[in-house]
Specification:
It is a single chain. This protein has three domains: 108 residues, Butyryl-Coa Dehydrogenase, subunit A, domain 1 (Orthogonal Bundle); 109 residues, Butyryl-CoA Dehydrogenase, subunit A, domain 2 (Beta Barrel); 146 residues, Up-down Bundle (Butyryl-CoA Dehydrogenase, subunit A, domain 3). By secondary structure, it is of the alpha+beta class. Helices cover 51% and strands 16% of the residues. The chain is globular and about 80 Å long. Strand 2 and strand 3 form a beta hairpin. The longest helix is centred in the middle third of the chain and has 37 residues. The strands form three sheets. A four-stranded mixed β-sheet has the order 1-4-5-8. Strands 2-3-7-6 form a four-stranded antiparallel β-sheet, with helices on one face. It has a two-stranded antiparallel ribbon with strand order 9-10.
Length: 379
């Protein structure tokens, strides 16, 4: 069952499907092998304005509801998860500004995206992964400026972004209440990129360190108030997690489609392997998991659109969908047998791509903490 979307979104979905079939799906196989960032593919995607899907209508965006965007994002993920991650991570880079920025900041960042720029969100540090509050990056106020120093790691789009939303300590003695959020443009003196990750999966996305060395920015680049950065970051992740669930659902859907296509033509014991009930049951379990994940994603996004609480639902969507993606990819490899382990066939890549979705935007262990705390309440 597909997402329930408008006719306008259905037209866009057809365009995205055609683009992904023609420009992304097969081409990304080679880039997966080399680890090279497919610049030309992203140039074409930007020309189609695929990176602008989350820009609000009042700032020049398409004005789609979030469930419609999810349908488009899942279609991209079916073609290549790294491609969809890059597009989604650019939206992530805008979120702190859209959540807490001034009207001027919102207009500026949205225009940067509409003009072809990609965004990046820089929270994680070498010593601050799941414990995001342990970051060491600092921002010291100096007259009409802040001077930032530190290193962020595992930053999606880090090496290709036009702008960054970055957390830094403005008061080391205040714990999480001493963290602030800042907007920084590419090319700002003192801002550079470092080590680029050679990843297991989503290899068509760029992931690298972002380095700040006496990086001076105007005080007007502070997003929200001093000391509110951690809260802004958590709100950002609350939204972002659902989108990771959406991409994971796309991976799982592609796994099932590949398994069905292979199962119809692979002959063993004189008949297609999908004639065997054990294989049919595998497909049934795949479909149950995928559709449940998709509906959880849709539910969380609908709550966001209605400005209702969604933290728990977003965590469930990300956690469940990513677990389903890994499970479905593993079962697809099993259905392919020995061929599933070969790079000649698509499912081994899907399994490699799926794993990261249990890890980033908060590990699934962290998601279970969020879910349990929201369910149990204070006592």
């Amino acid at each position: 069952m597909a997402y329930l979307i408008s006719n306008e979104a259905k037209d866009l979905l057809r365009d995205v499907h055609e683009f992904c079939e023609k420009e992304v799906k097969e081409q990304c196989k080679q880039y997966d092998r080399t680890g090279e960032w497919p610049k030309e593919i992203y140039k074409k995607a930007i020309d189609m304005q695929l990176h602008t899907l989350e820009v609000p209508k009042e700032y020049g965006g398409p004005g789609l509801d979030r469930v419609s965007v999810a349908a488009l994002m899942e279609e991209m993920a079916k073609a290549d998860a790294g491609f969809a991650t890059t597009i989604s991570a650019s939206g992530l880079g805008m979120k702190p500004v859209l959540i807490a920025g001034t009207e001027e900041q919102k207009k500026h960042v949205c225009q940067r995206v509409l003009n072809g720029g990609l965004g990046a969100f820089a929270l994680t540090e070498p010593g601050a992964g799941s414990d995001a509050s342990a970051g060491k990056t600092t921002a010291v106020k100096d007259g009409g400026s802040y001077i930032l120093n530190g290193r962020k790691c595992f930053i999606t789009n880090g090496g290709v972004a036009s702008f960054y939303c970055i957390t830094a300590m403005t008061d080391k003695s205040a714990g999480t209440k001493g963290i602030s959020m800042f907007y920084i443009e590419k090319g700002t003196p003192g801002l550079s990129t470092g080590h680029e990750e050679d990843k297991m999966g989503i290899r068509t996305s760029n992931t690298c360190d972002v380095v700040l060395e006496d990086c001076r920015i105007p005080v007007s680049n502070l997003i929200g108030e001093e000391g509110k950065g951690f809260k802004i970051a958590m709100k950002t992740l609350d939204q972002a997690r659902t989108w990771m669930g959406c991409v994971a659902t796309g991976i799982a859907q592609r796994c099932m489609e590949e398994a069905i296509a292979y199962g119809k033509q692979r002959i063993q014991f004189g008949k297609p392997i999908l004639k065997n009930e054990v294989m049919k049951f595998k497909v049934a379990d795949m479909e149950i998991g995928i559709e449940t994940a998709r509906q959880m994603v849709a539910h969380a996004l609908t709550l966001m659109d209605k400005d209702m609480p969604y933290s728990k639902e977003s965590a469930i969507a990300k956690c469940y969908a990513s677990d389903i993606a890994v499970k479905t990819a593993s079962e697809a490899v099993q259905m392919f047998g020995g061929y599933g382990y070969s790079r000649e066939y698509p499912v081994e890549k899907l399994l490699r791509d799926a794993k990261i979705f249990q890890i980033f935007e908060g590990t699934n262990e962290i998601q279970r903490i969020v879910i349990s705390n929201n369910t149990i309440g204070k006592f």
